Amino acid sequence: MVNMTGKTIVITGASSGIGEATAEKFANEGANVVLAARREERLEEIKNKISSENGSIAIKKTDVTSREQMQELADLL
Predict the structure, then answer these.
(1) Are 62 and 73 in contact (CB under 8 A)?
(2) 21 pLDDT higher than 90
(3) Res. 9 pLDDT band, cuts 50 70 90
(4) Is residue 18's pLDDT more than 90?
(5) pLDDT value, residue 67
(6) Would you put residue 30 in left (φ > 0), alpha (ψ -120 to 50) or beta?
(7) To 10 degrees, the CA torsion angle through 70, 66, 59, 22?
(8) Looking at residues 44-67, what average pLDDT do you find?
(9) Is the dihedral of CA 49, 34, 44, 63 positive or negative?
(10) Would you tell me how many other CB atoms lie within 10 Å of the CB of residue 16?
(11) d(Cα 66, Cα 27) in Å, to the nearest integer?
(12) Are strands 57-61 and 8-12 parallel, antiparallel or unpaired?
């Protein structure tokens, strides 16, 4: 298993389903997680729900069909 502590993971579609579960898993493994999706209020809820002792959790409202918004997401890194 790979040590995720200090790694940065960007998850699009993080507001539900597999994206949400993946975000929680990586955060629990100590990764720095960036949650991206269109529903910003839902991203806030997930951020507050996930506990990350070793990493950080950030959110970015992002529509993956928008080149501009995808560039803004990439610029966060």
Answers:
(1) yes
(2) yes
(3) very high
(4) yes
(5) 97
(6) left
(7) -80
(8) 88
(9) negative
(10) 12
(11) 26
(12) unpaired
- CA dist., res. 23 & res. 64, Å (int): 17
DSSP state at residue 7 = -
Task: Return the H-helix or E-strand segment holding 6.
Answer: none
2/53: higher pLDDT: 2
pLDDT at 68: 97
The two three-digit tokens of residue 35, written as one number: 């949650």
Q: How many CB atoms lie within 10 A of CB 15?
A: 23
Provide the residue type at 60 as one letter: K
What is the C-alpha radius of gyration for the chain, rounded to an integer number of angstroms? 12
Separation of alpha carbons 72 and 67, rounded Å: 9
